[in-house]
Design goal:
alpha/beta; Nucleotidyltransferase, domain 5; 2 domains; five-stranded mixed β-sheet; 9 helices; binds adenosine-5'-diphosphate; binds zinc ion
Length: 287
């Protein structure tokens, strides 16, 4: 089967071709500008590829309710050009193949469970800490949808005592994303993320926020693996800081060897690296 996959992001659309084994044969990156311009290039790329199916993981919020008249749309995004853009509908105009659709982070969670760090597990979370914070969840073998879909990047966190930064979420100010996504780190400390490497207080504070979120996810969803990726996690010292703080917060309450003795193998980097989202989009076709 030839599967066309799209990881639709706010800065770029990564498009690729692969198969049902999760093998990506080729990939390209198209800048996210206006829907007209971007989709033109996407359609041109896939046009002659003899696709059997397509899978799309998209930035959100998106409408995943198949009975809704706006199913397959990107909904109330701050990226105004894309507000209520009918992404699946636009692809259907050009390709008469089955199209799988979900959020970018749900797709990545699925990809990691099929071929990556959570291979063989029926439950995992995929968290990205980048321009925003997004979290996808596979629970009992299903990607979680609901009223819309979970928005675990926007939860409330307890403030760090030394943090006087207001937060920058346009909706909530100092929610998790408002305090801990890449642009918040850079604005609070006044430097690009990669230039903050030698400032331990930056990553202590970052881990303080990420660990609270992860501890809450453990308490609410009990995932079997937590995969954390995104640009900010290029500061790989964050992994051990976050693991230690998650253990502290949980205080030994959740009785699992994974948490108590093997947390290094519980909170991990993506097994598929930068391909989690694209491979996951291919995985959506198999559902
Ligand atoms: P996106 O979320 O748009 O898909 P990324 O996951 O690459 O993109 O995240 C981009 C963000 O990650 C940037 O806004 C920047 O703040 C942060 N970032 C990128 N590289 C580093 C780094 N080496 N150290 C810390 N932060 C970084
Ligand atoms: Zn928010």
């Amino acid at each position: 089967m030839i599967i066309g996959a799209i990881e639709a992001g706010g800065t770029k659309f990564v498009c690729g071709i692969g198969n049902e084994e999760g093998v990506i044969v080729e990939r390209i990156s198209i800048p996210t500008t206006t829907p007209d311009e971007t989709m033109n290039q996407v359609v041109t790329y896939f046009k002659d590829k003899q696709l059997d199916a397509m899978g799309v993981g998209s930035f959100g919020p998106v409408d995943l309710d198949e009975s809704s008249s706006t199913y397959g749309h990107i909904t109330s995004t701050p990226k105004t050009h894309w507000n209520y853009f009918d992404l699946v509908g636009e692809l259907r105009k050009h390709f008469s193949v089955p199209i799988g659709f979900d959020t970018d982070v749900n797709a990545a969670a699925l990809g990691e469970s099929l071929w990556g760090a959570a291979k063989g597990l029926d439950s995992c979370l995929y968290m990205t800490v980048g321009t925003g914070i997004g979290v996808g969840a596979l629970v009992e073998g299903k990607l979680i949808h609901g009223l819309t879909h979970p928005e675990m990047g926007h939860i409330v966190v307890r403030r760090h005592g030394d943090d006087h930064y207001a937060g920058r979420c346009p909706y909530h100010g100092d929610c998790l994303e408002g305090l801990a996504a890449g642009p918040a780190v850079e604005e609070r400390w006044g430097k690009k993320g990669h230039l903050l490497e030698d400032s331990p207080e930056v990553w202590e504070m970052e881990a303080y926020y990420l660990a609270q979120a992860i501890a809450n996810y453990v308490l609410i969803l009990s995932p079997k693996k937590i995969i954390v990726g995104g640009g900010v996690m290029k500061q790989t010292q964050l992994y051990s800081l976050v693991r230690d703080k998650v253990k502290d917060i949980l205080g030994g309450y959740v009785q699992s060897d994974q948490l108590l003795d093997r947390i290094d193998d519980y909170i991990v980097a993506p097994g598929l690296g930068d391909n989690a989202g694209l491979a996951g989009a291919m995985g959506l076709v198999l559902r």
